[in-house]
Design brief:
heterodimer, A: about 375 residues, Rossmann fold, OB fold (Dihydrolipoamide Acetyltransferase, E2P), 2 domains, B: about 270 residues, mainly alpha, MetI-like fold, two-stranded antiparallel sheet, 12 helices
C-alpha cells in the first residue's frame, strides 16, 4: 500500500437525473490506502459520487479509472468495491454469518473456506458470538458492524460507506468512528466515507473532499480545510469562523493586507499562491477562528479593532462571546472563544473591548 | 383509551357485543345444530350425536365433490401463485402498461361473480373449450389472482430497494439475486397468498356453477342438496366448510404478519 499512488480516478465526471444536473465535471483522485471523506450538505451530490463509483448508477459523462483502466461501464457485480449502505441493507432472512458470507458464496467459494473467513471477519468486528442471530435481533451498532464485515470479507480494493453512522445516537456514533478508523488502519484498505457531519469528517479522514451543489469545493487534509479553506463555502462550513468582507491590499512577503470595515487587517497567505497572485482591490474575506480572536494587549501590533460584547454563551469547556464590531459597533458580528473558568469570565455582556488576532492565525478567502 | 370515562367504555363494549352477536351468531346455529338430530322439522336438543357427520362421510357424492374441490384448489393455487408473483414482479419493475395491468387483474375480483362467470362461459364457448375441471380452474384463477398479486406486491414494495443493490454490490448476478434474496423475502407472502387463494377457491360457487362440466365442487354440491330440501347433513357440511375456511384464514394471517415481528418473538 502506497498512499502516493492513485487507486481510483474520476475524470470530468458528470451526472444528471433527466434534465437535472447533480454533478458537474468532477475530478477526484483517491489514493491507495487512504481514508477519504466526501463531505457536503444534503443535495451536494456526495452520495451520487459514491453510487457512481460503486456502479449503482451510470455516469452521464466522463470516466472512472481503476489502476488506470476505465471501469465506467463495468457492471456493479464485477467491480472490486463493496458498499456499507446507509440503512445497512442486511438480508433479513439470513443469519449474521449468512449475511457476511454472502459475497463469498455467490462466487462459489468452498463452504469450509467461507466458514473460516466469516469467523475471521466477525472476530475483526467483535461479533463472533452473534453469528447465528438474525439482523432483526441485533442493535443498530451491531447491524452496522455486520454490514462492515460483509463488505470487507470480499477483500475489496475500496470500501464505500454511505453515511453509515447517521442512524446511530451520538455516543454510539463516536465509538463507531474510533472503531472504523482502527479497522481501516488494521486492514489497510481504502475507505471512501460519505457524510454531512463535519465533526465526523475532521475526526476520521486522512483527506476531506468538500462538495457543494454538485461541485468539489476543496480537497485536503482536515488541518488544511480548517486553517486554509480556499473558498467561502469551506470557510463557513467547517466549525465556527469569523469572516470579514473587504478588498485585497498589497502583499508583504508571506502576509497580505485587506481593507475591511474593521480597518486594515493582515493575514497569512503562506502556501497559497493563488492569494499572492490575486489582483489588488479584489473582493475577499479575512477569516479567523473564534479561538484565534483575543483581547488586544501591547504585543499586538496588527489587526486592532474594538467591539461591544452583545452576548456570552457558556458551552462547557469554553465560553463564546458574540461581539458586534466595526465603525458603528454593529457592522460585523464576531465570535470570540475563551476557555471557561470556574469563577466566571472576565468578559461581561455590554462591555466594549479592544480585540486582535495574530496575522499568522488569520487567512484570506477570495469572494 | 384510558382517557375514556369508565361509563362510556362499558357502553362501547355493550354495543360491540350486541353487533357481534347479531351479525355472527347465525353462523354458529348450523354448527351447533349439526350435533343434534332433526325430527319432524325441529331440532331435538336432548341427545347430541355425530350421526350427521357419519352420514356425510358415507355419502359418496360428497366425498367425490370434496376430492374435486381439492384438485381444483391445488391447481388454482399453483397457477395463481406463479402468475401472481410474476405479475407483481413485472409491476414492481416499473415497466410500461402497469396501471392497465393492475386494473385488469382487479376487475374479476371486484365484479359480481355472476358477470365474471358469464363472461368466462361465453368466452369458453366461443373458443370451443369444453366445460370441465380445466375451465373451473381457469375461472378460479382469474378470480383469486388479484389476492395473490396484491399480497406479493405489497411485500415487494415493503422490501428495501437497497437489499437488491447490496446483493449486486456483493458480486451476485441477477439470477442469484432473484433466487437468494428476492424470492426468500417473498416466500411467506406467497404462502399466505396461496392459503387465501385456496380458501377462496374452496368456497367459490357462482363462477363454478357456470363454468363446470359434469363434476361439482363441495359448495356446488351443497347448493344442489339445498334445492332438494333441508337435510341434517347440510348443517354438518356447512359447519365443516366454515371451520376449514376459518382455519385457512388464521393460517394465512400467520404468514402475512411482517417477518421482523415474527423473528423478534423467537
Amino acid at each position: 500500500m502506497n498512499q502516493n499512488t492513485d487507486l481510483l480516478t474520476l475524470r470530468s465526471v458528470s451526472k444528471s437525473y433527466g434534465t437535472v444536473p447533480v454533478l458537474h465535471d468532477i475530478d477526484l483522485s483517491i489514493r491507495d490506502g487512504e481514508f477519504l471523506t466526501v463531505l457536503g450538505p444534503s443535495g451536494s451530490g456526495k452520495t451520487t459520487v459514491l453510487r457512481l463509483i460503486g456502479g449503482l448508477e451510470p455516469l452521464t459523462s466522463g470516466e472512472i479509472r481503476l489502476d488506470g483502466q476505465d471501469i465506467s461501464r463495468m457492471p456493479i457485480n464485477r467491480r472490486p468495491f463493496n458498499t456499507v449502505f446507509q440503512d445497512y441493507a442486511l438480508f433479513p432472512h439470513l443469519t449474521v454469518s449468512g449475511n457476511v458470507g454472502y459475497g463469498l458464496s455467490v462466487r462459489h467459494i468452498q463452504r469450509k473456506e467461507i466458514a473460516r473467513r466469516v469467523a475471521e471477519a466477525l472476530d475483526l468486528v467483535q461479533l463472533g458470538r452473534f453469528a447465528d442471530r438474525f439482523p432483526a435481533q441485533l442493535s443498530g451498532g451491531q447491524r452496522q458492524r455486520v454490514a462492515l464485515a460483509r463488505a470487507l470479507i470480499c477483500q475489496p480494493r475500496l470500501i464505500l460507506l454511505d453515511e453509515p453512522l447517521a442512524a446511530l445516537d451520538l455516543e454510539l456514533r463516536r465509538q463507531m468512528q474510533v472503531f472504523l478508523k482502527s479497522i481501516q488502519r488494521e486492514i489497510k484498505t481504502t475507505f471512501l466515507f460519505v457524510t454531512h457531519d463535519q465533526e465526523e469528517a475532521i475526526g476520521m479522514a486522512d483527506r476531506i473532499c468538500v462538495m457543494e451543489a454538485g461541485h468539489i469545493r476543496q480537497l485536503g487534509t482536515p488541518h488544511d480545510l480548517y486553517y486554509r479553506p480556499n473558498c467561502e463555502f469551506a470557510a463557513r462550513f467547517f466549525g465556527e469562523n469569523n469572516l470579514v468582507a473587504g478588498k485585497l491590499g498589497p502583499v508583504q512577503g508571506e502576509l497580505r493586507s485587506i481593507e475591511t470595515t474593521l480597518g486594515r487587517l493582515v493575514c497569512s497567505i503562506s502556501d497559497q499562491p493563488h492569494l499572492k497572485a490575486a489582483t489588488d482591490g479584489a473582493s475577499a474575506y479575512a477569516a479567523f477562528r473564534p479561538e484565534a480572536l483575543h483581547l488586544a494587549d501591547a504585543k499586538d501590533t496588527d489587526n486592532h479593532f474594538s467591539g461591544t460584547i452583545s452576548d456570552m454563551a457558556f458551552a462547557g469547556s469554553s465560553t463564546v462571546a458574540t461581539i458586534m464590531a466595526g465603525a458603528d459597533n454593529a457592522a460585523q458580528r464576531l465570535r470570540l472563544r475563551v476557555p471557561s473558568r470556574v469563577d466566571g469570565s472576565a468578559l461581561k455582556s455590554g462591555e466594549t473591548v479592544s480585540l486582535s488576532f495574530a496575522p499568522h492565525e488569520g487567512h484570506l478567502v477570495l469572494a | 383509551m384510558s382517557a375514556l370515562p369508565r361509563l362510556s367504555t362499558i357502553f362501547l363494549a355493550a354495543i360491540t357485543t350486541l353487533v357481534a352477536v347479531l351479525l355472527y351468531s347465525p353462523l354458529f346455529v348450523p354448527i351447533v345444530s349439526s350435533f343434534f338430530t332433526i325430527s319432524h322439522g325441529s331440532v331435538d336438543w336432548s341427545s347430541p350425536t355425530l350421526a350427521t357427520y357419519v352420514a356425510l362421510a358415507e355419502n359418496h357424492d360428497i366425498l367425490t365433490a370434496l376430492r374435486t374441490t381439492l384438485i381444483v384448489g391445488v391447481c388454482t393455487v399453483i397457477l395463481s401463485v406463479v402468475s401472481g408473483t410474476l405479475l407483481a414482479l413485472y409491476y414492481h419493475g416499473r415497466r410500461s402498461g402497469r396501471s392497465l395491468l393492475q386494473f385488469i387483474i382487479f376487475l374479476p375480483f371486484l365484479m359480481p361473480p355472476i358477470i365474471s362467470g358469464l363472461a368466462l362461459l361465453i368466452f369458453f364457448r366461443e373458443i370451443g373449450l369444453e366445460r370441465s375441471l380445466l375451465t373451473v380452474v381457469i375461472g378460479h384463477t382469474v378470480f383469486v389472482l388479484a389476492i395473490v398479486y396484491r399480497t406479493v406486491l405489497m411485500r415487494l414494495q415493503s422490501m428495501s430497494r437497497t437489499l437488491v443493490d447490496a446483493s449486486y454490490d456483493l458480486g451476485a448476478t441477477g439470477w442469484q439475486t432473484f433466487w437468494r434474496i428476492i424470492l426468500p423475502n417473498l416466500s411467506s407472502a406467497m404462502v399466505g397468498g396461496a392459503i387465501l387463494a385456496f380458501a377462496l377457491s374452496f368456497d367459490e360457487t357462482m363462477i363454478t356453477i357456470l363454468v363446470t362440466g359434469t363434476q361439482s365442487t363441495l359448495p356446488v354440491r351443497l347448493w344442489a342438496m339445498m334445492r332438494l330440501g333441508f337435510s341434517p347433513d347440510i348443517n354438518a357440511l356447512v359447519a365443516l366448510i366454515l371451520m376449514f375456511t376459518v382455519l385457512l384464514c388464521v393460517l394465512a394471517a400467520r404468514f402475512l404478519i411482517p417477518r421482523q415481528v415474527a423473528t423478534e418473538r423467537t
